[in-house]
Amino acid sequence: MTARMPPEVTLLLVGAAFAAMGATYWHFYWNKEVCNGSWINFNKTALKIDLKRKLFGQHVAAQVILKAVTGFMKSKNPKKPLVLSLHGWTGTGKNFVSQLIAENIYEKGMKSSFVHLYTATAHFPHEAHIKKYKIQLQEWIRGNVSICPHSMFIFDEMDKMHPELVNSMKPYLDFYNNLDGVSYRQAIFIFLSNAGGENIVQVALDFWKLGKERNEIQLKDLETALSLSVYNNKNSGFWHTSLIDKNLVDFFVPFLPLEYKHVIQCGLAEMARKGHFPSKNLVKRMANDLNYFPKVERVFSIQGCKIISSRLDFYI
Ligand SMILES: *[C@@H]1O[C@H](CO)[C@@H](O)[C@H](O)[C@H]1NC(C)=O
Ligand SMILES: *[C@@H]1O[C@H](CO)[C@@H](O)[C@H](O)[C@H]1NC(C)=O
Ligand SMILES: *[C@@H]1O[C@H](CO)[C@@H](O)[C@H](O)[C@H]1NC(C)=O
C-alpha cells in the first residue's frame, strides 16, 4: 500500500503526523493541571443544582453537604481541614456525593491529580502490614498536601480500616497551624462507611410506620441513631480512635435507605447516561426484580442504586 503512494502524499502524511504530535504536546502543556484557581474553583450554585437533580432521596444529606462544603470553601482561612463522615447502606449515594463534591471543586473532578480515593480492602488489605500502611498513608497525605493545599482525600469502606491506621491520620485532621511547615487546613477528608446504616433504616422505617412523610425526617431525628452506631459499633472504623473524642469530624452525614420510586429515578437517569431513551416500563421491570425490606411491605431497596448500571444491561 505505502509503496504505491506518490512521494508527495507520503510527505503530506508525515507532515500531518508531526502536526498531530505538536497539537498533542500543546494540548498537554497548556492543559496541565495546576493547583490554582483555574483548576480548583468551587461553585455553590452548581453543587446545589447537582445535589437537587442528580442525588435521589437524600434531602437530609444534600442539605448538610451543601452547608458544610460551602461554609468551608468560602472561608479564606479555615481553622482545620473539612472532615465529613458519610453513613448509610450501600447504594444510597455516598460515593456519588463525593464525586459531585469533587466535580464542583476541581475542574477535572475525580480525575484531578489533587483528588485521592482510597478503598480500605484494596489499598490497606493486610492487618500484618499495618505499620507499613501507616507510614505510607502519612507520606501520601503530607506529600500531596505539600504540592496542593486544596487536596481532597476520600476513604471508602472506612468501617474496614484498621483503627491504628485511622488514628495515624489524626494530626492532619486537627487544628494545627502547620506540621513541619505544611498546613493541612485547606484539605478535605471524606470518610464513607456502612456503619450506622441499620440504625438509619430503623428511623426511616419508624417514620413510614407512623404514616409520616419521608421529607419530614430531619437531621436531629437521625443524630442519635448515628452517634450511637459510631461510638458503640465495633465495626464503625472509629472504634477506639481519638477522631471522635477530639471532635475532629465536622459533620456526620446520614444517607436514608432508598425507596422504589428512587430506584426508578436512578434507573431513568442511568438509561439516559448510557445513551438510551429512558423507558419507564423497562426501568419498572428491573426495579420490581430487586430486593426490598421489610420483605412483605417492600419499602426500602436493599441494593439501592449501586447495581442498577449493570442490572439495566440485562433489560435493555
Ligand atoms: C494558574 O496557573 C497557570 C499556569 O501557571 C496560569 O496560566 C493561570 O493563569 C493560573 N490561574 C490563576 C487563576 O491564577
Ligand atoms: C456556577 O454554576 C452555575 C450553574 O451551573 C452557572 O450558571 C454559573 O455561571 C457558574 N458560576 C461560575 C462563576 O462559574
Ligand atoms: C500522592 O498520593 C498518591 C496516592 O494517592 C501517591 O501515589 C503519591 O506518591 C502521593 N504524592 C506525593 C508527592 O506524596
UniProtKB/TrEMBL annotation:
Domain of life: Eukaryota
Alphabetically ordered keywords of this record: ATP-binding, Endoplasmic reticulum, Glycoprotein, Nucleotide-binding, Signal
Occurrences of domain Torsin-1A C-terminal (ranges): 258-315
GO cellular component: endoplasmic reticulum lumen; nuclear envelope
Endpoints of the signal sequence: none
Intracellular or extracellular location(s): Endoplasmic reticulum lumen
Main location: endoplasmic reticulum
InterPro entries, alphabetized: ClpA/B, P-loop_NTPase, TOR1A_C, Torsin, Torsin_1/2
GO BP: nuclear membrane organization; protein localization to nucleus
Binding site for ATP: G88, W89, T90, G91, T92, G93, K94, N95
Cited SUPFAM superfamilies: P-loop containing nucleoside triphosphate hydrolases
GO molecular function, one term: kinesin binding
Pfam family, one: TOR1A_C
Protein name as catalogued: Torsin
Family: Belongs to the ClpA/ClpB family. Torsin subfamily.
